[in-house]
Each structure stands twice: as C-alpha cells, then as structure tokens.
Design brief:
Blueprint (H helix, E strand, L loop, with lengths): L9 E9 L2 E10 L3 E6 L10 H4 L2 H4 L2 E6 L22 H14 L6 E5 L1 H12 L6 E5 L21 H10 L8 H12 L5 H12 L15 E6 L7 H10 L4 E5 L6 H4 L1 H23 L1
Parallel strand pairs: 3-4, 3-5, 5-6, 6-7, 7-8
Antiparallel strand pairs: 1-2, 2-4
Helix pairs in contact: 5-6
Length: 288
Amino acid sequence: MPDATFEPVVGRYLHIELLGRPHRIFVEEAGAGTPLLCLHTAGSDTRQWRGLLNDPDVTDRFRVVAFDLPWHGKSSPPAGWQEDEYLLGADEYASIVLTIARAVELEQPVVMGCSIGGRLALHLALHHAEEVGALVGLQAGAHVDPYYDLDWLHRPDVHGGEVCAAIVSGLIGPDAPETERWETLWHYMQGGPGVFKGDLHFYTVGGDLRDRLGEIPNRCPLFLLSGEYDYSCTPEDTLAVAAAVPHAVARIMPGLGHFPMSENYAAFREHLLPVLDEAAAARADRVR
C-alpha cells in the first residue's frame, strides 16, 4: 500500500446570503487560536495559502481561515450568473469578507490579504476598523493604472486562462522555486471567463484610495509587507501608503514578488512570522 497522508486542513462549503443572493462558498481552515482570515489575489483562490495553512508555527497559534470569493476556485457564482457581468466593487468586496467572517465566528480577526486583498485591507482600515483586530496588507498599494488592455483577459479569440497566467508571470520574484512558480500560474489558468478582469475593476478603478489615505484612523494596527519584484505594486507604492498612514508599519521583502505566500512560502514566512506575532499582540490589546 503506498504511503499517503492527509494535510491538517479542513475544506467545507458554506451556504450563505451575500449581497442579497444565496451563495455556496468554499472555506478552508486549519489551526486554533487567534483568528486569521486570509484573502487571495485577483483571479485566483485559497490554494495560494497552502503553505500557511500547513505551517505548524502558524496553526499552533492561529485559527487560519481562507475562502474562495464568489466566482472563484470552488465557490460557485450565484444563480443567474450567465445574465451578469462580474465586476468586483469596493463596498461589495468588504461586505462579502465581513459577512463571511461573522458567519464562521471570527471575532475581530487579523485580516491578511494580498494584491486586491491587500487593497481591501486599506479599505477595512478606513471604513471598518472596529470590526477587525489587525490588518496585514501584502502588496498593498493605494492605486495602480492599467498597464495593459484588460479586454485581453476576456476575448473569444484568446485562451483566457493562458493569457491570465502570462500576464502575471512577470510579477513572480526571480528566486521563486520552479514548482511554486508554476503552481501559482496554474491557479490563474483555471479562472472562470472574465473573473480576473472583473477583479481588476476593483484594483484599477473602484478601489482607488490615493485621495483618502490620510483619512485612515489610527484605530486598527496596519502592517504592510511587499516583495521587491513587483511592478503592479512597487515597493515605492507600499512605502507611499506608509508615509500617508503614520501608524502603518511597512517592510520590503528582498527577492519576493507579487505572490509571496504562493510563489515562495519558505522565504516569505521569515518575514511574516514576526509580523503575525505583532499583529496578534496588537489585536489582543484591542479585544481585552
């Protein structure tokens, strides 16, 4: 009989109403302790957090929860999706995240998101600081101008999955192991038609916070981690957020790119673990 092991990760489907419509949402969970809610990047899914969910140095102290946004990964789009154009809005995105956090009983969780999830961390800091314990933004800039024609992401004469992977391939750091590099790209090859493009509506249009960073209150601890090899959210973009939000703590990670938790978890965790300690301590001070 061949050797076989299960990972200590539980995946379940959550039936929940989001934005006034019933949804079936895939949720993964591992560990116990401080609640930690993880948000995947545009066009991908919770598989990006596989390293974190299997890291006992995290799961021994944190209850890690990750979910696939509607339309992504194993989460279904709502009934009638064929009549809709998928466009992710800022208020809708925040509502989805907070509704699911409440449903799975995460009390003032540490919320960690990457790319669009990192941008959402800034929105949560601005609008929902009392509902979260601390925020960790990965690759979290306030805005990015489209640097290619987004229509290429959803055309009948182009293979959507391959073009999505091709576009993000240059955002992966040069030190990423080949296996992790190609698994990160594989996730992008599997996205539904138009989903990556719809996420980027939030990233390039609706989620723009350039003029509102100074309004973020000093109520929720905010930590920013960014890989140095990223032209979508450059180190300068992250440092500009930190300059505008005095209580934010920003650190640049050498050798990493736009998907640190997915492309090279072994390198990423060296930067992440001290930040998670700080975030957990800051949250504990707030919820006493």
